[in-house]
């Protein structure tokens, strides 16, 4: 099972010079088994898959999740998908820069999904440490994908630090709430035209993803909504369709909402019965 | 290192531990990061390392000596969101 793009599929896009046809970026954590993970990645049609790092336990030559990582590498080799390592768990720029260097070696990529947590309950990014880490990583040759909030000024600082893509949240990670502040995301999109932006985190349903794409965002990154579904491969397909539909809707041009009715059938204002 | 510190202390040390991911690992004179990785039974290509918060690339492990009380972190790839 694999998502196939329909006729008239959304236009391809680029991130750090890499052409991507899929606008669905998917996480690899929390699946019931490595086999289901592999089926889901294939079904999603995603060309970018996120991964992580963890302290290795002493004497553990096959660290936790290594089966899944091996399976993931094999699937990505077959499908051509790229790995995007993250810095999950970091709480300072210093930690994030160190973890990114280790990720670059382990996954052999300059891409890094920069996460610097500022609050343990919401997992909200720390904007100050985030910008600091982004600037350091760009100087070290990384291509940084910063996980950030929808704060316009912070996003501008990240661009100033050398980030060429932004990944604002829709809602807290894993919450499944969907887009909590559409007005903020509309503003961000309007004020930063042309900047590749990916909605990352907080989506729970395919309709949430379609809505985010209708706002004009370039892609969607999610994990829990798929990995925790009853049938992850089918949910991945559902999200793939929704992301595709949302983007097509944006490209086609949505009509502006109005308060009053506007007849769609041009039957005129004359009464039907004239006697 | 501050003024007055014993700069030769590491070379005089005869015994002790290095801390690896928070757990003690026996130290000996000449122990390198590469040795430590092998003694832990880790696959050297599957882990990344740092000593005292500084990244140590794979190619530099064999030339990076460890000293008592050094703090080493060893990370492996996992799935992630």
Q: Could you characterize the architecture of this molecule?
A:
The complex is a heterodimer of chains A (275) and B (81). Chain A is an alpha/beta fold and 275 residues long. Chain A has a single domain, classed as TIM Barrel, CATH 3.20.20. In chain A, 39% of the residues lie in helices and 15% in strands. In chain A, the strands form 3 sheets. In chain A, strands 5-4-3-10-9 form a 5-stranded parallel sheet. The mean pLDDT of chain A is 93. The longest helix of chain B is centred in the middle third of the chain and has 8 residues, at 33-40. Chain B is of the alpha+beta class. Chain B is globular, with a radius of gyration of 14 Å. The model of chain B has no long low-confidence stretch (mean pLDDT 89). Chain B has helices spanning 9-12, 33-40; strands spanning 17-20, 23-26, 47-51, 54-56, 71-79. The relative contact order of chain B is 0.25. Chain B has a single domain (9-76), classed as Ubiquitin-like (UB roll) (Roll). The interface between A and B is medium-sized, with 41 and 27 residues.
At the fourth level of CATH, the homologous superfamily of chain A is: Aldolase class I
Shape of chain A: globular
Percentage of residues in helical conformation of chain B: 10-25%
Number of strands of chain A: 10
Class per helix and strand makeup of chain A: alpha/beta
């Amino acid at each position: 099972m694999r998502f196939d793009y329909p006729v008239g599929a959304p236009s391809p896009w680029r991130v750090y010079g890499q052409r991507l046809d899929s606008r669905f970026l998917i996480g690899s954590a929390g699946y019931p088994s490595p086999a289901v993970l592999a089926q889901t990645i294939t079904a999603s049609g995603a060309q970018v898959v996120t991964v992580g790092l963890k302290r290795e336990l002493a004497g553990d030559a096959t660290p936790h999740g290594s089966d899944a990582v091996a399976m993931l590498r094999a699937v990505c080799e077959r499908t051509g998908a790229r790995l995007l390592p993250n810095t999950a768990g970091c709480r300072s720029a210093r930690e994030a820069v160190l973890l990114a260097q280790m990720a670059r070696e382990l996954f052999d990529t300059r891409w890094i999904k920069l996460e610097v947590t500022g609050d343990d309950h919401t997992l909200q990014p720390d904007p100050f440490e985030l910008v600091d880490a982004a600037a350091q990583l760009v100087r070290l040759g990384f291509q940084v994908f910063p996980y950030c909030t929808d704060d316009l000024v912070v996003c501008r600082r990240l661009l100033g630090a050398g980030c060429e893509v932004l990944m604002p949240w829709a809602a807290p990670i894993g919450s499944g709430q969907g887009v909590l502040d559409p007005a903020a995301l509309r503003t961000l999109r309007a004020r930063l035209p042309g900047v590749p932006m990916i909605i990352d985190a907080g989506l729970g349903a395919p309709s949430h993803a379609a809505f985010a794409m209708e706002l004009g965002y370039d892609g969607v990154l999610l994990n829990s909504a798929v990995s925790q579904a009853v049938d992850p491969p089918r949910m991945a397909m559902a999200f793939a369709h929704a992301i595709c539909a949302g983007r097509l809707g944006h490209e086609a041009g949505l009509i502006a909402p109005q308060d009053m009715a506007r007849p769609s059938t041009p039957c005129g204002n004359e009464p039907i019965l004239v006697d | 290192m501050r003024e007055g510190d014993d700069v030769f202390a590491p070379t005089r040390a005869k015994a002790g531990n290095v801390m690896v991911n928070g757990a003690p690992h026996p130290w000996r004179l000449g122990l390198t990061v590469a040795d430590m990785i092998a003694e832990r039974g880790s696959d050297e290509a599957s882990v990344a390392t740092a000593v005292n918060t500084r990244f140590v690339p794979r190619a530099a492990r064999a030339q990076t000596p460890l000293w008592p009380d050094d703090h080493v972190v060893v990370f492996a790839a996992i799935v992630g969101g």
